[in-house]
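Figure-free illustration: sequence to structure, shown twice.
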Amino acid sequence: AQVFQAGTRMDGDTLVASGGRVLNVTASGRNVREAQAAAYKAVDAIEFPTGFFRRDIGWREVVREKL
């Protein structure tokens, strides 16, 4: 997985959010389901107590793959 940041700044030695959408997590897999699982595994490893993330991204394609 790869994590891209925006809307962040350094506060001394600490990276802090400065507003808006601050992280984008992407991942690859043999199919969409595996890529989605890898991305969400990376999201779960991020320490961001006040952060919010969506768990619905990619669900339509995961459903299509099952057909």
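We now fold a second protein in the same way, so the two outputs can be compared directly.
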Amino acid sequence: MTRSDRLPLLAALAAAAGGLFSPPARSQNAADVRTTEGMIVAVPSPITSEGVQRIKNQVEARVNNPARPVKTVVFEFTPGGKEAANTSFGACYELMQVIDRFKAGTTTVAFVTGKATGHTALPVLACRELVMARGATLGPVAADGVAAPGPAELAAYDAITKDRKLPAAVVRKFFDKDVRLVRAQAKPGVEPGGVQYVDANNKAEMARVVGGGEAVEFAPDGQVAAYSADQARQLGLAAGVLDTRADVAEAYNLPPGVVVETTLDRAPDAYKFTLTGDIDGGTREAVGRIVRDVKRKKGNVLFLTIAATGGDLSAARGLADDLRDAAQGEDGVLVVGFIPDGAPDAAAFVALGCGDIVMSRRVDATDPGTEPGEATLGDFGGSIKGNKAGTLEAHRKSLRDLAEKRNVPPVLIDGLFDRDLEIVQVQNAAKRSQRRLMSRAEADAEKDKWVVTRTVKPAGQYLKLTASLAEELGVARFTVDGRDPAAVYGLYGVSPDKVKDVSAHWVDKFAEFLRNPAVTVILIIVGFTGLILELKVPGLTVPGIVAALCFILVFWSQSRFSGEMFVLALLLFLLGLALLGLEIFVLPGFGAPGVVGILCMLAGLGLLTFEKVPDTADQWGMLGYRMVTYFGGVMGSVALAFVIARFLPNVPYANRMVLMAPGDGPNTAALPGVAEAAALMGAIGTANTPLRPAGVVRFADRFVDVVSDGGFIGAGARVQVVAVEGTRIVVKEV
């Protein structure tokens, strides 16, 4: 059907909406209406030969896809409402040819949201249908530095006018100011009949109408024309007025996903990756590195299998934003999220951040560990139980914002969090093809306008979107029968053997290994063992280095996941270490500073594994459990340190790190200085430096290195030698 053939029908259907376009109803039951496979292509301005080639590749890849061929292609000529002023006839003619070649079996639609001037009109008119937004204008062609078309250019405009059965005078008025556009009634027997727009200076056209016609006020004589949306619809150029991509998707019964669709400008160069485990800050970093790796390899498609089990909702939202951003720019990557089983809470955020969502109906599920039934999107039961109301509300708003960017009805997101909400599908009482999802309360409030066709979510349960329901409602782009990702590749025209693996970076694998609870406990045991040995035997160095390395690895691996808690955990650990050092080196005995120091270190290590401050009883309980686990590790460290101190002197080579005490046997050689040290037994001297507990004491004219018997002794105090162990001299204050 040509554009002019459809105009009377379109006008009748649009009348109730004040001129808004609405397509013919395909079914009397809105629940039976299936969406038409389609795509929206943003036409860059200015139009260039390179840009036309990219558009050609984009459309051909989708139209010729044997699995899901596109039936409707929408060309958006003024993306974002920006003016499209194209002075190059050649590039516009090339785009016209590309559009024209798809006319068989494919509906091409021009969508204009801003000013479209110059030769932009040529590919716009080449489309089978034209829709415009309020405030948009089309034309003129010969203005603002664009010369009037020459013979070859006129021939192109005439060919498009004839092929699309457009009013010739209306098109010529774009570039010929001498056209006198008038409105007149067609003579009986003239097809098409009714109101005609003709050139009063053209005798052949005037011979087809009755009388001399009436001047068109918005196309004055002596000027080239630019038509607004309403004027273009009145003249027979435009099918209707649509303001947004979402309006276009609804009018042409396209999947909601086309509103944010990322189209490919070349043949797919695809990679694949599987997302597993809990989602947290480290996951976000890892996937970010993978996306950058795909871009570096010049890839443009990433098939992301979502097998994650949950995690931090804030980190998941950040990852979703990263995936959306990955589609932008010249090196944009289309991220296709595949859900083989389920995408609960945090995984749902990630899925909604993908360019497309594909879900499994799992009809071939033979894995005993796989539950029967379809894959599901959105199960927030665990998050609802484990978070406070304020936190849940913040996450709900965040997910609503993400869903709205994908043109997903916000009421569906509300249903994921609100058990009592009832969601219904309605259709417009006047335009039965117009469908909406809304709450039962909203439907009852507007029951004169909307007719409820079915209940999508009954009250009393949380919403879980199955694969079939998600596809029907436009949340999922496609569904496949099995759980094998290879079935997804064919939907995008990619052979499974052409999809390349992209693995996680070794840094991410190493951090994930270190984050294993068992590995973390081992690192803590080794770290505290080294710390105890270094404090017990100052100067060994090696245990201190090992302890520092262990704690650095623990904090580094956990810092990638702990988010806002990292700084607090680090400060608590350092405070505990400082208090422990104060207890050992300054204060006598073992009292409050030592106990508090150990508790601070354990609290720091416990908080390090949390993504946020615990705010529920379960989370506080988990913190206590981890602190007890790490305390057990500390006790193990004490035992291990004593074992090492006991047996290390007997280990060959390793005993060289330990200073051996002089033996008692008859053949034992006396160490240098032993006799001089023994002679000081009972001697009284003056502390030349503070003893902390080590320091220097003056005996007559000799300065000797000593240690106190445990307490701090200030400089100038009188001290007495109370013990001599080899060359080690112990003093006390007198």
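Summary for the second example: Confidence is low (pLDDT under 50) at residues 1-33, 661-672.
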